[in-house]
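Researcher: Structure prediction, please.
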Amino acid sequence: MEFPQILEKRRAVNYFDPTRDVDQKLLEKIIEQAGNAPSSYNLQPWKLKVIRDMDRKKALRALAFDQPKVTEAPVILIVLADRDGWKLENPTVENVFNNFVASGKMQTEQKGWFAGVTQGLYGRDEMAAQAFANKNTGLFAMSLMYAATANGLESHPMDGFDLQGVRKEFNIPENYWIPMLIAIGYLNPGTEIHPKGWRQSFADIVID
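Model: Predicted structure follows.
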């Protein structure tokens, strides 16, 4: 599928086929493809909780305004934005720095400098850490939905849920913000997909 087709086909689907599962290998492929999303200094401050179990989806649905797609879609992803994803002791950051060294982009002795840069940019206050986590994780989340479309699946991002309720129910540590849930699965047979709604044009988007 060419990218313009992916852009056109990707829709926020409300009706999923509850009888058709998503193969685990396909899900892993989609998540790894989405992992190619860009991020500041390649720090990749995102994680996912994958919810497949029906009892867990029922618990999540109760915290998500009783949206039927939470239990009808075979997979629900709880998207997590790591507000500590800039810290040098973070395992992902450690791997990123080691890769910089291995590729020749940095030297081992630059570790302290690198820690200072990430602290200054993203750890200077709570607002900076929150913005860092959300902006980068948003890029990953959009890539997830495009990857799902490219692989023949449908998706729907949701921000209608009780954030603190989800945090407590699913034991999500405080360093993670929860920007959205994403339902993934196959379209329920017989569902009519309406044309996309109005979109801004170039002239609408670009301002003086």
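Model: The mean pLDDT is 97.
Researcher: Thanks, that helps.
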